[in-house]
Amino acid sequence: MVLSVFTGCEKEFLERPPLDTLVDANFFKSDDQVLAASAPLYSVVWKDYADQAYFQLGDLRAGTLFRAYNDRDNTLFNTSDVSASNNSAYRAFYIVVGQANTLIQNVNTYAGPEVSVAIKNHAIAEARFMRATAYTFLVMNYGAVPLIENNIALLNDKDLTRNTVESVWEFITRDYLFAAANLPENPVQPGRITKWSAEGMLARTYLNRAGVGSSGGTKNQEYLDKAKDYAQRVITMSGAALLPDYADLFRYPYDNNVESLFELQWVFTTNYGYANTMVSQITYSNDIANGDGWGGDLGGSYWMMSLYDGLIEDGFTNDDRLKATFMLPGFHYPEITQTVRDNEGNESEQELIFPAPATTADNSFVNVKKYVVGKAVDVGGQASAQRYPNDTYMLRLAEMYLIYAEAEIGNNESTSDAKALEYFNTVHTRAGLPPIEGSLRMDRVYNPDPTKYRDDIFEERAKEFAVEGLAWYDLVRLHYYNPQKAYDIINNQDRGLFVVHPNRMPSPTSWEFIKTEDFTERTANANSGNFELPIPAAEASQAPNLRNEPVPYDFGE
Amino acid sequence: MNMKYMYRYKDYFMRDFKWKLAPVLLALLLVQSFCSFAQTTNTISGRVTSAADNIGLPGVSIGVRGTTTGAITDAEGNFTLQAAADAVLVVSYIGFKSQEVPVNGQSQISISLATDEKQLEEVVVTGYGELRRNDLTGAQTTISSEAINKTVNTTIEQAIQGRAAGVYVTQNTGAPGGGISVNIRGVNSINGSNEPLYVIDGVQIQGSTSSSGSNPLSTLNPSDIESMEVLQGPSATAVYGSRATNGVVLITTKRGKAGETRINYSYLYSLQTPPNELEVMNLRQYAQMDNEYKGIAGGTVREDFLDPSLLGDGTDWQKELFKSAPMNKHQLSVSGGGEKTTYYLSAEYLNQEGIAIGSGFDRYSVRLNLDSKAKEWLTINGNFNFAQTDEQLSTTQSNIISRSIQLPPHIPVRNLNGSYGGGTVTSTNTAEQFTPPNPIGLANLTTNDLTRRQFLGGLTLGFHIIEGLDFSTSVNGNVNFSNSTYFLPTYQFGYQRNEVATLNNTNGLNTYWNWNQMLQYQKQFGKHSLNIMATHESQESTWKNLYGERRGFQTNDILDLNAGDVLTSVANGGQGDWGMESYLGRINYNFGDRYIIQAAFRADGSVNFGPENRWGYFPSLSAAWRVSEEDFFNVGFVSDLRLRYEIGLTGNQGQGGAIYGTLAPGPTPWGTGFIPNTYPNPEFQWEETKTNNFGINLGLFDNRVQVEADYYIKNTDNLILRSSLPWYMGTNGQGAISPPLVNVGSLQNKGWSFTLNTINIDNGGFRWESNFNISHFKTELTSLTSESSILNRTTREWREWTQRSIVGQAPWLFYGYVEEGLFQSVEELESSALPADNNGVEYPIAENSIWVGDVKYKDINGDGIINGDDQTFIGNPWPKYYAGFTNTFSYKGFDLSVLITSTLGNDIYNYLRSENTNPNNINLGRNLFVDAFNYANVAYNDDDPDHLRPYLTNPGTNVARMSGGNKNNNFERHTDKFVEDGSFVRLKNVTLNYNLPTSLLQKLRYIKGARVGVSAQNVATITGYTGYDPEVGSHVGGLENPNSAAIGVDYGRYPLTSVYSVNIGIDF
User: Fold this and answer.
1) ipTM of the complex model
2) Does residue B97 surpass a pLDDT of 80?
3) Which of B102, B411, B663, B674 has the fewest CB neighbours in a 10 Å radius?
């Protein structure tokens, strides 16, 4: 009798779904739920990339940023199979792939009849967009990598092998095409990607792809035309516009402004994965932060400084982007609060004036301003250590103008096409610079002598997008069709320590840049053997199949 | 193991199984029920003594035949009763032959009881019942309260160490009340938890290691324990079915005995001493090192370091952190009762300060155990335990220990103005922005308290239906309430500061209940003895957490969420439940005390599995042959010879929820988003272990020498593991979907254990006994679902430090490179394998690339270059042998006990050394071990201006050169250089107790007995390990899931240190 008490209700007693968490099979039942399931694709899944690898790979390796004591591997172009940035980037990109794939599976499996077809497709398009973006980073950093469409089906498969670079680019293109076809022209919620985000990515994709597998340095003209076409469509049809003041791109609050096409959507939250933590990594000091600020030895490289018109030679530049990107001694930023101390050590707060090194100092740093938003008081209380609300750009309209110009130059070394010049100058003049007249040059052969060599587009992009994690990928694109020039650029960059002395404090009008004499590690050595990142050692040893020759991907056609 | 179990019978008087006790019980009942007519009575007093040693026997029942009159002897064996002059006294006592003594008109009677060899046989508790030790067919080990009392134990698992063969105990943290790993018979399961199931008076608690370092069993008072039974063999464990693969520890608490009320008070005072310091640089050395670094890597020499010889020693951070710390324990117990009802009541207060600032442990506990024979057919047993523990956990959770090793000596603990010291950053000296925050300041200012309140208890009703047939039902429960407070205040330690104070509060409530119904039948006919048991059991547990956080406190004084900024409020929840239903049947058959067979079958239905895999079935069979009882066996000096064999199936049901694909919430600009956080595995099923066990028991010379040996082979299939997938599956990192729990393969575990108990000398009051036990196990992964599979357990925060499992090897071996010294010359570089670029081209041999003074890695695969393929297995965290050796000497009132424990053949990865011998880390504003000073010093001769022929001025060193961007990754790769032999022999405990003689105490009217004792614990250790302490268990500190915590790695673990104690005990 007693024994039967529980057998009668055994099923209930032994059937216990989780009490504190949703289960996939019960979710995806309404449009709102499906959108709630795609929302994290804009932040947490990118976390391990956005926290540090974003600038470690995208800028330190490219030579736009310099770091003196940390990240020496990336600074000296020695990123290895055990480098932390390599590990975290590789993992993060595949986290994006895995979450995107699983979202597609879940929507297809669990979405009920209450979910509209438009929203189902929207979520799948978002997932494919994110997946394509992750694969773009993967293929450009690592070359051939495994393509995955359904993680759940592969959970017991350890025999996956790499797919060819061409396959990966085809895969990326198809994903973006699907996204462009299925995303709306206007975002369903502010900050969500649109058709124009996808077309902008297609412009970038075709420009990159044009050089893939190019023999004899000739890029694929069909792809160049497509790049131009998509760039122009976004410029003319998307409704996006450049902000008049470049500095406003990074003055809080700037999220989802009219120039933005795709950005990572962080929020001020105690949930580490969903808040912007890159700010903590790049902010130069706790004096302008919230108990964090670990980028004291991180700043613009000497080479980067040399790109700003007149800066090294004349001591100053008219390029507005310098002050919006890096801090020179004496630069004044009213939007950021700074803790300062008097001789007795008493603290007070003031508007940030970037301090000057001691007159005897032989090294200092041109620390990062971009994305640095200051103390909690500067962002309406929306910040604390490792918790910042500001977004990370992934695609801005300005890039469309420069893509158009680069694609127009195409397989030539210059162009005087009026449209290309107009577009280029739209970006160039916004920075407070006079327009370039006549022609745009992209010399095929690098020469360290600036009177003999110009690459207007590459250098414009470096200045426009410094600290936005893009410069490295510009070099990868170049490397596809002209590897020697990519090596030459890198190997001729000064990646060493230097000091910046203002002519006076406060309110300096010119600055002197002096290389630190006893600092010997000034140049990197790029070559075919270290240009791509090695697959992380931990990954290679647990997935030995990754060493096999890559194979073309079977698109099932 | 030859402890005096005879005293224990009343503890289990009314518990589940009483086949051996029933006749005694019945005899008493019969005596009482045949009431007689009244007669003139006289007062009779007397004393009952043991015939063997003439010592008074307490608690002896004396009945007057044919009446209900009776008495129980007091602590000295004295009794008084009323009886007629011609009455007959019936004197009975377990372990002795009953006697009938005619009064014959005497008023003073001395009774001397002879021991009854039959009854003396020990009765031991086993799963769902109890057995005579001689009836045991399975391997199990007993640890008695006497053994427990000999060491200073703040938590119960500590008492097991060194006392039971087959049980490998390591303390994960030496922090007060800290967590312990208990490993019974090797590695049975490949997922992190190899912890046994604990059954405390019927309450089943799954052992677990906790990432916080606090111990789930630390609410129990070790002084309340009567005995611990470690069930090891399959026939004993299989009755616990799906939770028993890792073995079972049965804990039985003390119960009252009929007779005079006994009051015992004891007090223990211990002094714990600081560890021996690790050798870090003093200020002169540090300044010298900093200057040398700048000479090599560039940078401005600090003005205050210009002449290191002028400097003093600087701050000794370890000395500042560690101190001698006291521990106090008060223990009071009252027990007694009448024939129908007995009780045991105890109360404890334990207060332990940690040897490191910011750690401590307090416990208050009360226990009441009640036993009542309410009716002839009804027994009631109850046990109730309430305990509260207060823990301070700052030291464990904030890396305080590793930080205090890393803080540079020029930083003062406190500045002149009283504020805590910290790093300073100037434009020429930026290194100290990376200096860890002042650990002393942090430990003092941070509040990290955990309070737990636990109610544990149960009620059992036993019904005697007809002779031989009994039914009992019990309800056991466990309610735990925990409350943690973590407050990180604002602070400024020089450059290191925290501007926003944060307070976290977590409340947790978990409940467990278990309802058991059991029917048992026993019958003796002729030489046949039969015992049949059937049980149904259901159990359920639930937990619920509530977490609150606020930031921005205006002061550091009010530790309440209300005092924080309401706009920063965070609230989180969390809850879950678990349930299991089980049926169990068991038959035990004994023929003539020679042949014993036991068969059992259990079925478990668990919520952890989908409908198809829900029920698991666990049969077991065992047999014992007592050869020494055979008529033909006639070897005089062999007093006992028993052969045992057992086979059985046990299980592991892993974690719950594996069959569900769960979604985690996260804040987004568009409201809460939901993202998959675990892949589901609807096919998830039991892990099952099949064990074959061969055992022998041998007693020689009237059991003065007892040998017990077991050999076992365990085959585990369907190993449960959180799948380890390549990173391309996106299962690793922030926002990742955790891999599913899967059944990945099989492993085999072979081992043996050997115990030797001897009475070496028993002569004229001097007695010397020894217990020696030694065990060995070897675990090998025998298959994985995919043959090429590799299982990695990687700690990302430690430069991808990895433990790896592959088929054919023991699980979780350390994985890394092998060092072959440092490069001494360019020629050696040219002839050696070097790291290479993606094209397989070796990096250039140059000062800014790979150079003399760099580490020479072994080219394991012989392909001429160094890369990830040159990693191999570099260490094994599992011991080959572990042993305990106890010697007890007693003479008159003196009792000396010496315990030695030892572990041999395990490796430790000394991560702390790998971090702190990296000379480049001086540029992170950190102090280093003195060894780092001997970094490879590259030099050139005067006739070598182009630096073509570098050499080392210190060619013997194994610390690579200092260099910034190094292509050889000298200090990034994990190598065998940091793998150390963790073997040790430790004088674990020496205790000397003295029982004050009765003659002395007779003058003190109320005091019946008194003891004083002194002891020393962790007195001396012989080891080659260079860290604080070789007893390194699982890593704690919140880096990883406790179920996959790194094993055998030392990163500033809280050490065990010497403890000196005095105690007194008084019986009233």
Assistant:
1) 0.93
2) no
3) B102
